[in-house]
Automatic annotation (TrEMBL):
Residues that, per the record, bind substrate: 118-121, 210, 243, 273
GO molecular function: fructose 1,6-bisphosphate 1-phosphatase activity
EC number: 3.1.3.11
Origin species: Paradesertivirga mongoliensis
Family stated for the protein in its record: Belongs to the FBPase class 1 family.
Protein's recorded name: Fructose-1,6-bisphosphatase class 1
UniProt-annotated binding residues for Mg(2+) 2: 115, 118, 279
Ranges of residues in domain Fructose-1-6-bisphosphatase class I N-terminal: 5-196
PANTHER family found in the cross-reference section: FRUCTOSE-1,6-BISPHOSPHATASE-RELATED, SEDOHEPTULOSE-1,7-BISPHOSPHATASE, CHLOROPLASTIC
Principal location class: cytoplasm
Phylogenetic placement of the source organism: Bacteria, Pseudomonadati, Bacteroidota, Sphingobacteriia, Sphingobacteriales
Lineage: superkingdom: Bacteria
Length: 337
C-alpha cells in the first residue's frame, strides 16, 4: 500500500533543495494551500448557499465580480497577511497592490501575485474554475517593498502554481525544480501527492482557442487553426478542438493529455485578454518546468517586460512541438505583429 504524502510533508521534504532556505517559502506555500481548501469548500457548495451570482460590483477592469470572486480574494489575502511571509500582494480583484505592514510580516520578503478565482464567469454553470499564483522574492532589501518589486519579469519567479476546482480539486506547483500535482482528499482535508514530476507531452492533438473570435484573429492564427483541422498526414490523426473557457481547466487538461492553448489578439482584446503578471507568467513557468513552451507567438512569456500590474498579453502555451508550429505560422503569415 503506497504511503500518502501530503503537500505539507512534500514541501518540507523539498526544502532541502534550497540550502539557504529558512522555511519562509515553505510556510508561504502552506498558507496558500490552507486558503485553497477554504475556497474549495465554498466553490463545491456554491449552488447551495447564496454565494452564486454577481456581487453587484466591478473590478478594476470593469468586469462584474462574482460573490465567490470576492470570497476567494478575501481568503487568500487573509491567509497571506496572517502567514507573515508575504510583504506585497497583487490581485486581479484589486486595482492597486496591497502592501502588508504588520508585526508578523515586518521581515517578509515574498511577493504574491494572484488571480484568486479565474474563470469565475463559469461558476454559475458548474464549470471548473481555478486559482493561479506567482511568487517573487522582493528585489529591494532595504525599507518597505515598492511597486517595482511586483513588476519583475517572469524569469524571476521563485514559485508558481494553480488550484483547479474541478471533478476533483488539485494543486499543481513548481519552485523551479519540476512540477508536482496534489489532489485534495476531502476525507482527511489534505492535498496528497498524486502527480509527481508532471511532464506535458511534447506533442498533442488538442487545440484550445475561442474560435468565435476567428474573423479577428491574425492570419497566422487562422492558418494554424486550418492546419489543425486537416488530418495529420504522418499519423492520419485528426486534431480535436476543446475549449472550456476556463484557462486553468484548459491548461490542466493539456498538461495531462498534451495540447496547445491560445489566446491571441482579438478586436475586443488587441493585446490579448489574459493578464501577464498573475495568469500568463505563472502558467508559463509551470508549463516550461513541465517541458512545454509558452510564448506570445514570437517572444517567450517569461522574458516579457512587465510595465504594469494588470497588463494583458497574448499567449500560445502547451506542448512544445504544437507551440513551435503555431509560431511558424505567425512568423510566416503575421510577421508584422
Ligand atoms: P473568452 C475566464 O474569464 C478567462 O479569464 C480565462 O480563464 C479563459 O481562458 C478566458 O477568460 C475565456 O475568454 O473570451 O474565450 O470567454
Amino acid at each position: 500500500m503506497s504511503v500518502v504524502k501530503t503537500l505539507g510533508q512534500f514541501i518540507i521534504e523539498k526544502q532541502k533543495d534550497f540550502p539557504y532556505a529558512k522555511g519562509e517559502l515553505s510556510r508561504l506555500l502552506r498558507d496558500i494551500g490552507i486558503a485553497a481548501k477554504i475556497v474549495n469548500r465554498e466553490v463545491n457548495k456554491a449552488g447551495l448557499v447564496n454565494i452564486l451570482g454577481d456581487e453587484g460590483t466591478t473590478n478594476s477592469h470593469g468586469e462584474s465580480q462574482k460573490k465567490l470572486d470576492i470570497f476567494a480574494n478575501h481568503q487568500f489575502i487573509s491567509a497571506l497577511t496572517c502567514g507573515g511571509e508575504c510583504c506585497l500582494i497583487v490581485s486581479e480583484e484589486n486595482d492597486d497592490p496591497i502592501f502588508i505592514e504588520s508585526d508578523v510580516s515586518h521581515n517578509a520578503k515574498y511577493i504574491v501575485c494572484i488571480d484568486p478565482l479565474d474563470g469565475s464567469s463559469n461558476i454559475d454553470v458548474n464549470v471548473s474554475v481555478g486559482t493561479i499564483f506567482s511568487i517573487y522574492r522582493r528585489k529591494s532589501t532595504e525599507g518597505k517593498p515598492t511597486l517595482q518589486d511586483a513588476l519583475q519579469r517572469g524569469t524571476e519567479q521563485v514559485a508558481a502554481g494553480y488550484i483547479v476546482y474541478g471533478s476533483s480539486t488539485m494543486l499543481v506547483y513548481t519552485t523551479g525544480k519540476g512540477v508536482n500535482g496534489f489532489t485534495l482528499d476531502p476525507s482527511i482535508g489534505e492535498f496528497c501527492l498524486s502527480h509527481p514530476d508532471m511532464k506535458i507531452p511534447e506533442d498533442g492533438y488538442i487545440y484550445s482557442i475561442n474560435e468565435g473570435n476567428y474573423i479577428n484573429f491574425p492570419d497566422g492564427v487562422k492558418k494554424y487553426i486550418k492546419f489543425c483541422q486537416e488530418e495529420d498526414p504522418s499519423t492520419k490523426r485528426p486534431y480535436s478542438s476543446r475549449y472550456i473557457g476556463s484557462m486553468i481547466a484548459d491548461m490542466h487538461r493539456n498538461m495531462i493529455k498534451g495540447g496547445i492553448f491560445l489566446y491571441p489578439p482579438t478586436s475586443s482584446s488587441p493585446k490579448g485578454k489574459l493578464r501577464l503578471v498573475y495568469e500568463c507568467n505563472p502558467m508559463a513557468f509551470i508549463i516550461e518546468q513541465a517541458g512545454g513552451r509558452a510564448t506570445d507567438g514570437f517572444q517567450r512569456i517569461l522574458e516579457m517586460e512587465v510595465e504594469s500590474l494588470h497588463q494583458r498579453c497574448s499567449i500560445f502555451v502547451g506542448s512544445e512541438n504544437m507551440v513551435r508550429k503555431a509560431e511558424d505560422m505567425m512568423m510566416k503569415y503575421s510577421p508584422e505583429m
